[in-house]
TrEMBL record, chain B:
Keywords: Membrane, Transmembrane, Transmembrane helix. The keyword Transmembrane applies. This is DUF420 domain-containing protein. It comes from Chengkuizengella axinellae. It comes from the Bacteria. The chain crosses the membrane at residues 12-31, 43-65, 77-98, 127-146, 158-184.
Length: 121, 189
């Protein structure tokens, strides 16, 4: 008889995706609100990528999102792998939060939230 | 009377014609005279192939939800290919982004002539087009870990999890594709 895997592993997948993509979005907002500090950091993080000089801070935003996604996935995988979760509840929460992220990252929305002019990136 | 040809053959033929015509869109940029012509063609072909294959992948979710034999294995293979194509498209996208941001490039043209295009389309697309990576790899991981269980009993909710992840992935791929096409129509890199 095969050992049954616990659905906690799926929760780790959900949470890490949400954290990684939130970090991507937060780093973008951060680079607009505080460019001097944020862009220095983001350029540094992305500087190992080929062509980073042309990609700019976007390379760093990709990198921080990627790192947070992978690291949090590994951590949460080992935390949650022994528990069972309610899939119905967590699917609903995940779908809702993903659509929330997709709406929040649309520039007209976050420009309206912070009251920025359309000339801001 | 028996049908003259099978529904399956007709569906495959229709899909092949659609795929061929869609692939022609980036290839026809060969006539373009931009400095980044080859790179934009690579990115366009990669993105089109990704979206085409992801549409096929979406159709493989239905046998998975119905618990058909062999559905997990087929979906795993196609999802792996979609993930590879997505990553390849992102690599060419980053490469092409250098041209987009270059002095006198498309970005400056947009900010000068239509700032809203840069804002509403590009600034959105460049982030949403990254969403399919964790969604696709996460779904592949779940298929890998729970594949045997899903084949033994179809009453688990795990196939629904995979279906939701892949549907979200497909929506994000389509957003990237449609917004990219809309931008190229106004000003190519």
């Amino acid at each position: 008889m095969m050992k049954q895997r616990k659905t906690g592993e799926i929760l780790a997948v959900f949470i890490s995706i949400f954290l990684g993509l939130s970090t991507l979005i937060t780093s973008h907002i951060w680079s607009i609100t505080n460019p001097t500090t944020a862009n220095y950091f983001l350029l540094k993080v992305g500087s190992w990528l080929p062509g980073w000089w042309g990609i700019g801070t976007y390379a760093g935003k990709e990198m921080v999102g990627f790192i947070v996604w992978i690291v949090s996935w590994i951590i949460f995988h080992f935390i949650f792998k022994n528990i069972q979760i309610s899939l119905v509840k967590w699917i609903s929460i995940f779908v809702f939060s993903m659509f929330a992220l997709m709406i929040l990252i649309w520039p007209p929305i976050y420009h309206a939230i912070w009251g920025w002019l359309p000339t801001k990136p | 009377m028996k049908p003259i040809f099978s529904a399956r053959d007709l569906a495959v033929t229709q899909a092949c014609v659609a795929a061929l015509l869609f692939i022609l869109m980036p290839i026809l940029h060969l006539i373009d005279n931009s400095q980044y012509k080859w790179l934009s063609m690579f990115h366009g072909i990669g993105a089109t192939l990704t979206v085409l294959l992801s549409c096929y992948m979406l159709h493989l979710i239905y046998p998975l939800l119905r618990g058909k034999v062999g559905a997990v294995k087929r979906l795993k293979l196609i999802l792996l290919l979609v993930n590879i194509l997505t990553l390849a498209s992102i690599v060419t996208a980053n490469w092409l982004y250098i041209g987009y941001r270059a002095p006198d490039g498309a970005r400056q043209w947009f900010i000068y002539h239509h700032p809203s295009i840069h804002l509403i389309l590009m600034e959105y697309k460049e982030f949403v087009a990254l969403f399919p990576v964790p969604l696709g790899i996460g779904a592949l991981w779940i298929l890998h870990r729970f594949g045997k269980e899903m084949e033994q009993s179809s009453n688990t909710g795990i196939s629904s999890v995979v279906a939701i992840l892949l549907t979200l992935m497909w929506i994000c791929l389509m957003i990237g594709f449609v917004f990219g096409l809309a931008m190229v129509k106004i000003k190519g890199v």
